[in-house]
Amino acid sequence: MNEFLHQLLAGLATGGIYASVALALVMIYQATHHINFAQGEMAMFSTFVAWMLIDAGLPYWAAFAATVVLSFVVAAGIEFVVIRPMHKAPVLSVVVVFIGLLVIFHSLAGFFFGYTIKPFPSPFPADAWYGSSLMSAHEVGAIAVALGMVALLFLFLRATPLGLAMRAAAQNPGSSRLVGIRVGRMLMLGWGLAGAIGAVAGMMVAPVVFLDPNMMTGVLLYAFAGALIGGIDNPIGAVLGGFIVGVLENLIGTYVVGTELKLSVALVLIIGVLIVKPSGLLGKTIVTRV
């Protein structure tokens, strides 16, 4: 029973990381109605930047804050320079651009930082009071960080004028422009927030899987599954889906298919959701009158 409980709680901790990346995917989907396939590589590159700052002697939390701000700026810049000129391009062209960004960030990380696996420090001390034999301090901290980001984002989008303007720009750009909302700036802000959220997720996962250019490949797939399960257009649903995927991946991988086939769990979940309920648990079902 203790072993099952440990696997369940470990799945929740992993799900917190998937939830963070799923949240970043949803932010960009709401802004552009496209999936950013480079989200994982952008988070990975941000984590390398944090590692470089820490290795240079900067305190962890200072490096953390600097990385989040830099990731926000870079992601917003990508939207302005690369994505905005593509807003009328065919869907396939946009997909190719996202894949190109994935390859670019992956190659830049290997070029600047190498492909050697590097340890990354955890901000949560191993002997912290909230750690236990069932959940490490880092696992508890990763869950708290994911839930904290969800709460802050929810309050920002629901209770601030800027957040309301972002939601309006994402849902109805034409009407938003008529009432004076700068839609381009709102979309750029959405990309920036997604970049910052992805950076936090990368810094949470790096102490677990270690730091290398390939560390976010599987994480992005699980996060995509979580976003689809919860609803690709619903931030809260995506977070819920991330936790569900984390638990299912851990339990099924441990007791059913084995660790070698754990990644297939995400693929099965993606296919199953697309067949049974494409809109996800909390997503909107769009009905078009013809």
UniProtKB/TrEMBL annotation:
InterPro entries named among the record's database cross-references: ABC_transp_permease (IPR001851), BCAA_transport_permease (IPR052157)
Record keywords: Amino-acid transport, Cell membrane, Membrane, Transmembrane, Transmembrane helix, Transport
Segments forming a coiled coil: none
Localization (cell): Cell membrane
Source organism superkingdom: Bacteria
Membrane topology: Multi-pass membrane protein
A Pfam family this chain is assigned to: BPD_transp_2
Signal peptide limits: none
Regions crossing the membrane: 6-28, 60-82, 94-117, 137-157, 186-209, 263-283
Family (UniProt): Belongs to the binding-protein-dependent transport system permease family. LivHM subfamily.
The protein's name in its UniProt record: Branched-chain amino acid ABC transporter permease
Species whose genome carries this gene: Hydrogenophaga electricum
